[in-house]
Fold this protein.
Amino acid sequence: MSIDHVLKLYSETIRSPYLHYGFWDDPTTVDLDKITLQHIKDAQIRYIEYLTSFIPETVQSILDVGCGIGGNAEYLLKKGYNIETLSPDNYQRGVIHEKFNGEMVFHHVKFENFIPQKSYDLILESESACYINMDAGFKKARETLLNGGYLLASDYFVHYKDGSKNPHLRSSHPLEKYLSTAKENGFDLIEEYDQTDNTMPTLDYAKYFLERFVNPSIEYGVYSARKNFPKMSIMVGKIIGPKWDQKKDQLDLLDSQQFRKYRKYMIYLFHKR
């Protein structure tokens, strides 16, 4: 698989070892005017701390599916778990190799195509379940886990559809279908938590930052280009204008109210029957 350039940009901009939304203990107290980059990094640490609390005490070996750039794996390794990582992304493969000095087992493959050479106590899918085919993913999880093993998934799922083409309806599994597919493949849901409210301040801040700093800068840049280089700006506008219009609807992904309308950010702990 080629490099996911969006995730690469995010990791290099935030300068954090984590690629997830983060977890805010009390979202009602968050002041967007006072949020700093460190606050976002702290929220990301709280996310893996909270997610780890769902891991049963008997678990020793974990396969981190969709491992990102290794932040979760590094945290779990320090907690004493035996960790292996998996991702089809070339950039992530390079980061994992460098971060762990080549000592971390990294499976460079899509999970659906993974051929396990051993069995694991738990599979972790942190914001990666949405990229995995539901039926094939649960079947592969059964193949990969020890008898009585666990699947811990933390991701956003669609809980409402209205026939629109809202971007929040893309790239997410239908919540009820996901749960029924788990059951059909021999997985019992034993614990769950709706962390939607705990993650939304990250979206709110991204939207706030875009509207306060990025959009005005772009508008000024366009104004300046049209004033000083009118002919060139017209040529450039014809080239990138249509593409920009196609991308505008993706900004709705930063709207936390729309997120809540269509999706829920859930933690699910499944037990393999």
